């Protein structure tokens, strides 16, 4: 559980690296971000490109799990455990190793190389455990992916969920959540997501100050993560328990 929490937190730091604001050197940002993102089978360069599109249009959003779409427990756990993400990542690892990924630009080459590196690390972990008879990677990487995925779901879902996604203003299409200093550190400032979209390249440590300026104009704010997810899960569970065919 603790290792999974660390992996989820590190993915948020990888997000900071992705904006090239964690370190002064772009190379250091890229190297550190690649390593941290890989723990959740996330390709840094692929994420960076898609995330740039997301900042232009928030409708390009990977965490838009509407309660009405979660019709049973299987779909809920499929989302919580990021099964589609992990399956896609493994498939891309295979495609990259077999030379079946397009390489028409430097960015696409980096994406391919990132998946090849991921494939090598995964294969190396499996081989190490099998040859030594010690489940080191199983316990330190593979199994922690379960809690890491669940933590990551709860960190990223509130960012834009229920907001007006077809509006280009961060005051309307993004959310801010009031929380403790510890939780704000754990999510690496992601509770100030409206501030992040307001000034995407602002240092994470400045997001609270930005929030103080724009907070009164925000359309979507929450008093706590508990308030947000309490409302979300009540609707999800109501939908799961609803008789089949009910409107």
Automatic annotation (TrEMBL):
Keyword Membrane among record annotations: yes
TM regions (residue ranges): 114-131, 137-155
RNA-binding as UniProt keyword: no
Tree of life domain: Bacteria
GO biological process annotation, one example: lipid metabolic process
Domain Fatty acid desaturase residue range list: 2-226
Pfam families assigned to the protein according to its UniProt record, in alphabetical order: FA_desaturase
UniProt keyword annotations, A-Z: Membrane, Transmembrane, Transmembrane helix
Protein name, per record: Fatty acid desaturase
Species of provenance: Tistrella mobilis
Origin organism lineage: Bacteria, Pseudomonadati, Pseudomonadota, Alphaproteobacteria, Geminicoccales
């Amino acid at each position: 559980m603790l290792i999974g929490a660390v992996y989820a937190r590190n993915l948020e730091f990888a997000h900071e690296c992705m904006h090239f604001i964690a370190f002064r050197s772009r190379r250091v940002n890229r190297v550190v971000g690649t390593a941290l993102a890989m723990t959740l089978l996330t390709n840094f360069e692929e994420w960076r490109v898609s995330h740039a599109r997301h900042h232009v249009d928030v409708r390009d959003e990977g965490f838009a799990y509407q309660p009405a779409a979660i019709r049973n427990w299987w779909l809920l756990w499929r989302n919580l455990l990021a099964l589609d993400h992990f399956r896609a990542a493994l498939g891309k690892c295979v495609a990259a190793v077999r030379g079946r990924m397009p390489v028409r630009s430097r960015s696409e080459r980096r994406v391919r190389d990132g998946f090849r590196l991921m494939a090598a690390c995964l294969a190396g972990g499996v081989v190490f455990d099998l040859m030594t008879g010690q489940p080191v990677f199983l316990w330190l990487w593979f199994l922690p992916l379960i809690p890491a995925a669940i933590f990551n779901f709860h960190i990223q879902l509130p960012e834009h969920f229920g907001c007006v996604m077809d509006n280009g203003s961060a005051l309307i299409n993004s959310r801010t959540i009031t929380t403790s200093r510890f939780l704000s550190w754990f999510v690496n400032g992601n509770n100030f997501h409206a501030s992040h979209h307001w000034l995407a390249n602002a240092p994470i440590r400045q997001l609270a100050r930005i929030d103080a300026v724009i907070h009164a104009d925000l359309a979507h704010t929450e008093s706590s993560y508990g308030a947000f997810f309490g409302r979300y899960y009540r609707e999800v569970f109501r939908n799961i328990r609803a008789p089949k065919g009910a409107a």
